[in-house]
Amino acid sequence: GFFRRTIQKNLHPSYSCKYDGCCIIDKITRNQCQLCRFKKCIAVGMAMDLVLDDSKRVAKRKLIEENRERRRKEEMIKTLQQRPEPSSEEWELIRIVTEAHRSTNAQGSHWKQRRKFLVRHNTQNN
């Protein structure tokens, strides 16, 4: 965060050091001298030109998310293509279960009439 904010807000020209740029920067002392902290960032290989502005950062995140979604879809298609075709016994079981479901489905007209009757019957008892 420190390095990115420094670059995006162009703060590094305003940084100064009380000890001629010789501060030891570690996890404990890093907040004591901004100039030496910034210099250490550069020394360890952080590149100012690789810091993205807000619009580029948003675009990069969007691209990453689109790529993840594309890979998820490709993986799903691959998985579906590798799934074996059901055997004739499995198809028969699917047919029997589907037929049983349809014949007892509560959406049929017989069940609608029965439900109406049951609702009226319950309201009359209350």
Automatic annotation (TrEMBL):
PANTHER family named among the record's database cross-references: NUCLEAR HORMONE RECEPTOR, THYROID HORMONE RECEPTOR ALPHA
Domain Nuclear receptor: 1-53
Matching PROSITE patterns: NUCLEAR_REC_DBD_2
Protein name as annotated: Nuclear receptor domain-containing protein
Keywords, in A-Z order: Coiled coil, DNA-binding, Metal-binding, Nucleus, Receptor, Transcription, Transcription regulation, Zinc, Zinc-finger
GO molecular function: nuclear receptor activity; RNA polymerase II cis-regulatory region sequence-specific DNA binding; zinc ion binding
Cellular component annotations (GO), alphabetically ordered: RNA polymerase II transcription regulator complex
